[in-house]
Specification:
Helices cover 0% and strands 53% of the residues. The chain has no helices and 11 strands. The strands form 2 sheets. Strands 2, 4, 5, 6, 9, 10 and 11 form a 7-stranded mixed β-sheet that branches. The protein has a 4-stranded antiparallel β-sheet with strand order 1-3-8-7, with no helix packed on it. Strand 5 and strand 6 form a beta hairpin.
Amino acid sequence: QVQLVESGGGLVQPGGSLRLSCAASGLTFSRYVVSWYRQAPGKARELVATIDSAGSNTNNDGSVKGRFTISRDNAKNMASLQMNSLEPWDTAMYYCKAAVAWNKYWGQGTQVTVSS
């Protein structure tokens, strides 16, 4: 059974940092492209960052460029999202997705709240 489990969310003040983790099991993780998405209340889910299966190419949405960094460790079946300079508009539920061909798997999400 495939599982993606996110962790690392929480409450942080504006300008602070958080590191989200996505632990994968039940799949050959190194074959999958991993993405982080977020969804704020009342808004559509949006793509935040993507990393290819080898970890050699990454892509960030313009709104987080220079602040968020996606990475992965295939030996540990884990992906991470380092988030710096957080702002209130970064508040959302953050989800990890692993995809290859027609297979897509989602985690249950971890809440990030940026507030003073």
